[in-house]
Amino acid sequence: MDGKAKSGERIAKAIARSGACSRRQAEAWIAAGRVRVNGEPLDTPAHLVGPGDRIEIDGQPLAPRERTRLWLYHKPAGLLTTNRDPQGRPTLFERLPDHLPRVLTIGRLDMNSEGLLLLTNDGGLARVLELPSTGWLRRYRVRAHGSVPAGALEALKDGIAVDGVLYGPVEAQLDREQGANSWLTVAIREGKNREVRQVLAAVGLTVNRLIRVSYGPFQLGDLAAGEVREIRGRTLRQQLGERLTTQAGADFESPLRQPAKPATKTGKAGPGRGGKRAAKPAPGRLSPAAASRLSTRKAGSGAPRGRRAK
Predict the structure, then answer these.
(1) Which residue of the set 110, 158, 175, 222 is catalytic?
(2) What mean pLDDT is predicted for residues 108-116?
(3) Which is higher by pLDDT, 133 or 305?
(4) Less CB within 10 Å around the terminal CB: N or C of the chain?
(5) 3-state DSSP helix/strand/coil % of the chain, to nearest 5
(6) Helical H runs in 57-148?
(7) What is the distance between the alpha carbons of residues 227 and 116, in angstroms, rounded to a whole number?
(8) Which residues, 6 or more positions from 220, have their beta carbon under 8 angstroms from its beta carbon?
(9) What is the pLDDT of residue 132?
């Protein structure tokens, strides 16, 4: 590639905004030599691209950017937040409705956790909403085995270090005791790996049920387990505000691309809105519909997959 200065945005950022993957994963693809710009292989994620540049991944053109969208998903317990699992355990991408385009998860919920998970087609938005600096509160209903020690929850407001990991301020309130268990409401802003479980374990509580009930301004509400609901564009723009919209580079002007709904043998719409669910894939493999929705925020080596046809 030539060294001429040019305006535009970084290639990894452009790939993430298309919904193909996260920015981190795009950088991994570039390092692996899988990305070309105008026919030339790329070796740096710092390369700038503009509207006239042709971007290819594994020889396939990058899909044009779609309007920024966001969905609320009620993740049931027992699903992994990943696009595939070598052990054949079920993943949420196998259970999402077929009418969704390719989406990324905003943050994660571990396999045994349930509740609100945000999905988006915009890698830039996913990255911004995961940042602790964004300041969005994540609230959970927690059932834990054990009694709450006096003053222990109040002390969490100053943060706590557990096994060398420093966790920021935690808002925790005891709601009620039920037999050997305690029900609490817990709120955090960082969302580190297994943060709620680790913090409560440090005060003598063993979490046996964890339900995320809100993420920033978005609420789980009456969303049924496994259900997906899209946030209207105008509402999303209002909730993000000017600062986050600009920081994420959210696009509310581009057109929507509606994928075709796959037909079943009866001619009805596929699973997700009343159609029959496809046969369960073999352990460790995704159905074509699940695979087309791509990935979580973790970097991976799986080949990118194109969006479904219009």
Answers:
(1) 110
(2) 95
(3) 133
(4) C
(5) 20, 25, 55
(6) 123-130
(7) 10
(8) 72, 74, 115, 116, 211, 212, 213, 214
(9) 86
Residue 111's φ and ψ, nearest 5 degrees, are -55, -40
- Yes or no: say if 96 and 73 are a contact pair by the CB < 8 Å rule: yes
Using 50, 70 and 90 to split pLDDT, how confident is the model at 290? very low
User: DSSP state, 91?
Assistant: B
| Average pLDDT along the chain | 82
- Looking at residue 92, what DSSP letter applies? G
pLDDT digits (tens, 9 = 90+) for 229-253: 999 999 999 999 999 999 998 999 8
CATH code for residues 9-61 = 3.10.290.10
Q: Please tell me the distance from the alpha carbon of residue 122 to that of residue 125, in angstroms, as a whole number.
A: 5
Helix (H, G, I), strand (E, B) or coil at 148: coil
Residue of 55, 64, 74 whose CA lies nearest to 226: 74
Domains in the chain: boundaries: 9-61, 70-219
Q: Report the CATH architecture of 70-219.
A: 2-Layer Sandwich (3.30)
Long-range contacts of 90-95 (CB under 8 A, 24+ apart): 91/286, 91/290, 92/117, 93/286, 93/290, 93/291, 93/293, 93/294, 94/280, 94/281, 94/286, 94/287, 94/290, 95/226, 95/290
Per-residue pLDDT of 31-62, as tens digits, reads 999 999 999 999 888 899 988 899 999 999 98
Determine the average pLDDT of the residues in 249-277.
53
- In whole angstroms, give the CA distance from residue 168 to residue 188: 8
